[in-house]
Amino acid sequence: MVDLKIQLGGLQMKNPVGAASGTFGFGSEFEDFFDPGRLGAIFVKGITLKNREGNDYPRMAETASGMLNAVGLQNKGVDYFIETIFPAIKHYDTEIIPNVNGSTVDDYIEVTEKLNEVKGIHAIELNISCPNVKEGGMAFGVSCPSAVAVTEAVRKAWDKTLIVKLSPNVTDITEIARGVEGAGADAVSLVNTFLGMAIDARTRRPKLSTVTGGLSGPAIKPIALRMVWQVYHAVKIPVSGMGGIMNAEDAIEFMLAGATTVQIGTANFIDPQVSVKVIDGIKAYCREHGFDRVSDLVGAMEG
Amino acid sequence: MKRVQDFKLKSYRRLNRENYILTLQGDYLEKDMHPGNFAEIQVPGLPEVFLRRPISILDFDPAKKTISFYIKAIGKGTRQLGRLAEGDTVNIVYPLGNSFSVPRKGKVLIVGGGSGIAPFVLLGRALQQQGVETTFLIGGRTRNDIFLTEEFSRYGTVLVTTEDGSRGEKGLVTGHSLFAGSMNFDRIYTCGPDPMMKAVARLAGQRGIDCEASLENLMACGIGACLCCVTPSPGGNRVVCTEGPVFNTKVLGW
Ligand SMILES: Cc1cc2nc3c(=O)[nH]c(=O)nc-3n(C[C@H](O)[C@H](O)[C@H](O)COP(=O)(O)OP(=O)(O)OC[C@H]3O[C@@H](n4cnc5c(N)ncnc54)[C@H](O)[C@@H]3O)c2cc1C
Ligand SMILES: Cc1cc2nc3c(=O)[nH]c(=O)nc-3n(C[C@H](O)[C@H](O)[C@H](O)COP(=O)(O)O)c2cc1C
Ligand code: FES
């Protein structure tokens, strides 16, 4: 028997595999393919204070081993989430973790205060790394003082596990990680998407309505892995790692580099059942390599 | 129910160099499929093609457990899908999206162009089963761009326009003499390039005829998870892969 249970800050998860925000809807989209309750956590799609329509079409461009997106946090707002969506998904036997976004620090606080009142939500993921919005978003996550300020403010409004999602679009990700650790984060998640762009040479136009967008998928995996490893060594709080995970082996690499839990993003679009395959694959790996507890994998890279 | 499933490539029917019908066979076939539904096909053997490709369901046979697709090779994925070998494994997620509404009686017009003709075989058959009188109007650049008319002729009258006049009336579908006539249709269905669908929707609107269009937006997931495929509407962005691909054109504000 392999013990898959794992602790992310104060949050107890039944296994280390989560679905990454913005790539798994609210979970119900995947019900035909598997029981979302099998996941360790569902990081539901980004939530803002008010309804947001997101960016204009086209919002997506395929790239070599990856994709660019510029969805821009389309969602119906936090009240709609609390009143309509959460009641419909809270029965899943997993942790539902809202991904909190804002244009201003006050926005973040207000969304957090509302979520803090909801029974059954044990953690939030503070997104200070969305590259696809004009105001706020990544702007908070690319400078240390603003990342610290928003984390401190949200910390005061949130009683349970606070995960801060970091942007890879920085010179030194460990500096930001240490900053938010000091500001009260219980865990960090990384990486969000890399700022990129694509041009259609035939039409000489940008492929995205916003020109730039966020790169995800296997193309970013080696950089994401490096950042997880660096942050693991820079902070004491646990890391939730992601970026290009396509299978169990990728996920195990992230754990060996220091990730306590992993998140699966873009791979959900390629194989809607990938998450359960990753859970089963991690279990099989532990059995084969003599790990009784999945937590023993964390940071177990040799040398 | 939506499924992700491996199929084996059973056969190709080559219509010409760039157009073909791909037939897949599985150990199981979902039967709950409707005109307008599509599949997300994983393109095998080409690492440059990362995402699945959305393709309408052309036809299916529950007895033989086969499903087929009409594909117009316009890029790397659709070309690669035409280069596989018999017996190769092809993974698809299906059936996806909503479907055309099928009335119980009356008279309808179907206007298609390009790869947008694919959903109209299933639609034509469903309409015929309901006793609906159907006219197909298919447009292309030349007669070499007109496909599936034999199939359509089993379910109704087929009219053709070509831009060079090599088959049917010369010009665009919206220039067909039909639109100058009485146009006593109860509904118009359309699928093809956006400008064509918008022009058809406008003509339908002017005559007070209900119009349903099936959109071919770029997609990543095909199941409503990524919100990459949206189309604007007066009521906000609509998710094409789940709220569509079929929309009443009034909903889109066309
Ligand atoms: C619901 C739905 C049903 C469809 N049904 C069919 C069908 O039955 N048969 C069929 O042949 N095709 C169908 N399509 C279109 C098909 O999905 C695209 O042609 C295909 O994804 C192109 O992939 P590719 O790799 O060949 O092209 P790529 O190499 O990716 O692209 C080639 C060029 O075409 C452009 N392009 C690609 N896809 C689109 C798009 N959706 N809209 C505008 N420009 C685009 C690209 O920007 C690029 O310039 C459907 C699309 C949708 C959304
Ligand atoms: C279409 C799309 C939408 C996303 N939306 C969000 C979001 O709302 N909030 C967020 O924190 N991250 C969002 N992300 C980033 C992912 O959660 C993840 O950090 C990133 O894609 C890297 O992981 P991957 O390579 O496994 O996809 C989105 C990614 C994609 C592809
Ligand atoms: S393609 Fe992902 S939501 Fe439609």
Describe this structure in words.
The complex is a heterodimer of chains A (303) and B (254). Chain A is α/β, with parallel strands linked by helices. Chain A has one domain: Aldolase class I (TIM Barrel, Alpha-Beta Barrel), CATH 3.20.20. Chain A has helices at residues 78-89, 105-116, 138-141, 144-157, 173-182, 221-234, 248-257, 267-270, 274-289; strands at 6-8, 11-13, 17-19, 41-43, 60-63, 66-69, 95-97, 99-100, 123-127, 161-165, 187-190, 194-197, 199-200, 205-206, 212-216, 239-241, 259-264. In chain A, α4 packs parallel to α5, α5 (173-182) crosses α6 (221-234) and α6 runs parallel beside α7. Chain A is globular and about 50 Å long. The two termini of chain A are 28 Å apart. The model of chain A has no long low-confidence stretch (mean pLDDT 96). In chain B, 13% of the residues lie in helices and 33% in strands. Chain B has four helices and 14 strands. In chain B, α3 (149-153) links the parallel β9 (133-140) and β10. The longest helix of chain B is centred in the last third of the chain and has 13 residues, at 194-206. Chain B is globular. The two termini of chain B are 31 Å apart. Chains A and B meet through β5, β6 and α8 of A and loops of B. The complex binds flavin-adenine dinucleotide (FAD), flavin mononucleotide and FE2/S2 (inorganic) cluster. FE2/S2 (inorganic) cluster binds next to loops of chain B.
